[in-house]
Amino acid sequence: MSEPHADLTFRTLEPGDEGADAALLRGWLEGLSRGFHDSRNDDAEFDRWRKHAGRDGAVLRGAWPAARVAGGTLPVGTFASWAGELNVGGGRTLGLHMISDVTVAPTHRRQGLLRRLMTDDLDHAVAQGRPVAALTATEGSIYGRFGFGPAVRGRRVEIDTGAHFGLRDLDDPGSLEMVEPTEAWPHVREVFGRHLQATRGAVSRPSFYEMFLTGEYDWDKGAPDKMLRAVLHLDAAGAVDGYALFRHNGDHRKDAAVELVDLAADTTSSYLRLWRFVADIDLVEKVRWGRSPLLGTLDLALVDPRVVTTTALHDTLWVRVLDLPVALEARPWHADGDVVLDVDDALGHTSGRWRVTTSGGAATVRRTDDAADVRLSAESLGQLYLGDVDAADLAVAGRVTGAGADAFAAMADGGPTPWCTTGF
Ligand SMILES: CC(=O)SCCNC(=O)CCNC(=O)[C@H](O)C(C)(C)COP(=O)(O)OP(=O)(O)OC[C@H]1O[C@@H](n2cnc3c(N)ncnc32)[C@H](O)[C@@H]1OP(=O)(O)O
């Protein structure tokens, strides 16, 4: 039997490398667009994409078929990754391997091409010393087999900002200023940077967020985002400590609504004042937001919680542990204890038995030959890693087993619930 994929050439490309083959890069981008059913890209779009992917230091993997009828630059598989940061709780961030742009052409689907690209890429992540990998998924059925679990969930909400909207206590010494999104951008970047350091489950933003949050270009529309608006919140001393980016949906009748694009703030009073602002916009009585936490400060500050309707609940971040001791020692723990985990990891990165000893909120983790107290898969480990799902609930579902499951759950389970407002 011949080698699998013997007819394909596997390459990695670095868009940030000036000497990279521009024709292959262009082909890679077109392969990606084809895979996601997007339109072709013009020269300006290619330049824009390359600039941002280059700034991220992205590594692009692809599989190219031998040229037959076509010119040979379009790959039949695409896969991108780069280094970022993940807040793992307890005020700590870890190096993150961020994965995106995964496509396989219809001619080559279900022949193990994604498996090959994923295996190569995770090996690369380990070689780079990145302890955790993450992605956002198009389908829930793809990534569990590779050790990723849905680790952060979020909600799409519609908020009735009419007569029933009211906040309990809003004692805000600060003020608001509407500015152009490009003027807001340096502040948006700084406030978000603090949000990343403070929020469990938050992920650093890829470079393309600048284009997206300044309205320079909306990739979905293929045009600048001329409807984007920005407001900054300033504290009593005049320093920017919060922002909201939003756009009106263009409907000036019954379905007039504001879509909240992004909102972050350093303090609760700044956060709620920004919500008050968005809710008070005239001629609009609906605000929609796709990045709401499962239960957030706004929900708890509302006089009438029923003004919030959850229109969708989704997984926002899939996580895969690559270096188990580094990952588990970085996250917070909630009870002292000592258990031996036996992890079933089909790709091998976290396989085997590990003694986890917790004391005073911190863990030490060592490889061991001792008998296991707890058994779980790499996928379950990824799912419970940030605390979105309790180990106790996974135990009830039969996904964390063994005599030490209750002890492990007591050690691992505890807030806060993670929240991620970054898509990639
Ligand atoms: C992070 C991101 O970018 S998410 C975006 C994912 N991409 C898309 O949704 C674009 C459209 N889909 C595709 O391009 C392809 O179908 C891909 C990339 C999802 C899968 O690529 P393929 O090369 O067909 O996957 P591959 O053959 O390596 O499959 C590996 C395993 O996953 C399974 N699998 C692959 N895709 C799916 C799926 N969509 N649903 C369920 N199982 C799947 C295969 O059956 C196989 O299982 P096995 O190991 O038990 O035999």
From the structure above, extract its key features.
Aminopeptidase; 424 residues; five-stranded mixed β-sheet; 3 domains; single chain; twelve-stranded mixed β-sheet; 17 strands; binds acetyl coenzyme *A; Nonspecific Lipid-transfer Protein, Chain A; alpha+beta; 26% helix
Describe, in short, the structure shown:
By secondary structure, the protein is an alpha+beta fold. It is built from 11 helices and 17 strands. It folds into 3 domains: 128 residues, Aminopeptidase; 161 residues, 3-Layer(aba) Sandwich (Aminopeptidase), CATH 3.40.630.30; 90 residues, SCP2 sterol-binding domain (Nonspecific Lipid-transfer Protein, Chain A), CATH 3.30.1050.
**Largest beta-sheet characterization:** 12 strands, mixed
Structure class: alpha+beta
Give the overall shape. globular
Termini Cα gap: 38 Å
> Can you count the beta strands?
17
InterPro entries: Acetyltransf_17, Acetyltransferase_Eis, Acyl_CoA_acyltransferase, Eis_dom, GNAT_dom, NAcTrfase_Eis, SCP2_sterol-bd_dom_sf
EC number: 2.3.1.-
Family: Belongs to the acetyltransferase Eis family.
Organism: Nocardioides cremeus
